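User: I'm curious whether this sequence folds into something compact or stays loose and floppy. Could you predict its structure so I can see for myself?
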Amino acid sequence: MTPLPKLSAPAQRALASVGIQSIEDIAKFTREEILSLHGVGKTTIIPLDEALALAKLSYKS
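Assistant: Here's the prediction. I'll summarize afterward.
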């Protein structure tokens, strides 16, 4: 399980509200689904994009 990058508290709460605790969990969602969460914006999505790439994962199609 790959931990999430350091994120703001609102972003952490938003991700936790849908059961996301790791980078592998992020890959179960589309990028648009993640961006639609209240508390997740451009400053959150960029580190998530980078973490997915480092883990050789991608968003759900």
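Summary: The chain has a mean pLDDT of 98. DSSP finds four helices and no strands in the chain.
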